[in-house]
Write a structure and sequence with these properties.
heterodimer; A: 111 residues; mainly beta; 6-stranded mixed beta sheet; 5-stranded antiparallel beta sheet; globular; B: 113 residues; 4-stranded antiparallel beta sheet; 0% helix
């Protein structure tokens, strides 16, 4: 059975800390891995990773994929209270647009 | 403003009473999808559509129907809702050039008693 597992389930840090969120997957016919940020309600797209070893960056956020070990990490440096959210990882199966989501990591950044 | 809208945003209904949750996008996106989100289970895909009249099942399609008669609209139909369909529902759409960059609607919280 295909699955996506995120860790930790939750995390509390202080402003300025650096955090690493993990996403491992077991999916047949892997195509891409995506990261989303969910604050109050609707998720918003962060990154899509398809190739192993290529880092995607956006400001203080970065992500990388390891297709051999079947995982991805999302790094947030110099965290701010506005980074508080649930971070979702999803995998897309090749040849389809079917998404499998993990249950998310809840990040709380304290001032 | 580019957006995905859902209606209603909140709904309490009773078992067996047919309902429709509407989803509309104004971005001319071809891809649209429905998800449900439950505590401890994350987001699970119900149905998706690659274009008008083209739909396919996600991981949890049982008890749901969809239709895609126009590009902008993708309604979710519960013919006979049951309490286990109580959930937070999200509609999403994505552009043809970037089908994985989904834009999510604000969500519909459905309670079936």
């Amino acid at each position: 059975e295909d699955k996506v597992v995120q860790s930790p389930l939750s995390l509390v840090v202080h402003e300025g800390d650096t955090v690493t969120l993990n996403c491992s997957y077991e999916v047949t016919n892997f195509r891409s891995l995506l990261w989303y940020k969910q604050e109050k309600k609707a998720p918003t797209f962060l990154f899509m990773l398809t190739s192993s070893g290529i880092e995607k960056k956006s400001g203080r956020l970065s992500s990388i994929l390891d297709k051999k070990e079947l995982f991805s990490i999302l790094n947030i440096t110099a965290t701010q209270t506005g980074d508080s959210a649930v971070y979702l990882c999803a995998v897309v199966r090749s040849g389809t647009y079917k998404y499998i989501f993990g249950t998310g990591t809840r990040l709380k950044v304290l001032a | 403003e580019a957006q995905v809208t859902q209606n209603p945003r909140y709904l309490i209904t009773v078992t067996g009473k047919k309902l429709t949750v509407t989803c509309s996008q104004n971005m001319n996106h071809e891809y649209m999808s429905w998800y449900r989100q439950d505590p401890g289970l994350g987001l699970r895909q119900i149905y998706y559509s690659m274009n008008v009249e083209v739909t396919d099942k996600g991981d949890v399609p049982e008890g749901y129907k969809v239709s895609r008669k126009e590009k902008r609209n993708f309604p979710l139909i519960l013919e006979s809702p049951s309490p286990n369909q109580t959930s937070l529902y999200f509609c999403a759409s994505a552009p043809p050039a970037k089908p994985y960059e989904q834009y999510f609607g604000p969500g519909t919280r459905l309670t079936v008693t």
